[in-house]
Design brief:
single chain; mainly alpha
């Protein structure tokens, strides 16, 4: 079943359960799917990768918003964002632990033969493709920097 159909099913369940937070998050994702479909033009269906990227983008937006709200001392606004993140994360694949990401980064650095920060772009490109959907770009970036500086 495609992510779009799953989102629609969850949306129906949220409507029946009168879960406003989940409904709001799922409607935002549905809206993002429709927007992406119209952007691509002729293509009828989004690929699984595109659907995954859209949901990741939605989660990242909410994380950023929640961080700003918490920084500003507005816990009342941060709570719904954090709850929406939980709803959206059920559609994402299991995230890898930092140790697993570090292993992949180390293996990639060896394979490419990266020697310093000048090779960070090459390493980031390969690792990001390999771990698509399983790791946050910021985490990958930090680990690559650590390994290349060491």
């Amino acid at each position: 079943m495609s992510l779009q159909k799953e989102v629609m099913d969850q949306m129906k369940k949220a409507m029946k359960a009168k879960d406003t937070v989940a409904l709001q998050a799922l409607r935002a994702v549905k809206s993002a799917f429709l927007l992406a479909k119209t952007e691509t033009g002729v293509q009828e269906e989004l690929t699984a990768d595109e659907e995954l990227k859209i949901i990741q983008k939605q989660v990242k937006q909410r994380k950023d918003s929640a961080a700003v709200f918490i920084q500003q001392g507005r816990q009342d606004l941060a709570e719904p964002e954090l709850e929406e993140i939980k709803v959206l994360e059920q559609f994402l694949p299991e995230a890898l632990s930092e140790e697993k990401i570090a292993e992949v980064v180390a293996a990639t650095i060896q394979k490419i033969g990266a020697s310093g920060m000048k090779d960070m772009g090459k390493v980031m490109g390969v690792v990001s493709k390999e771990l698509a959907g399983q790791a946050d770009g910021k985490t990958i970036s930090n680990l690559v920097k650590k390994k290349l500086m060491a």
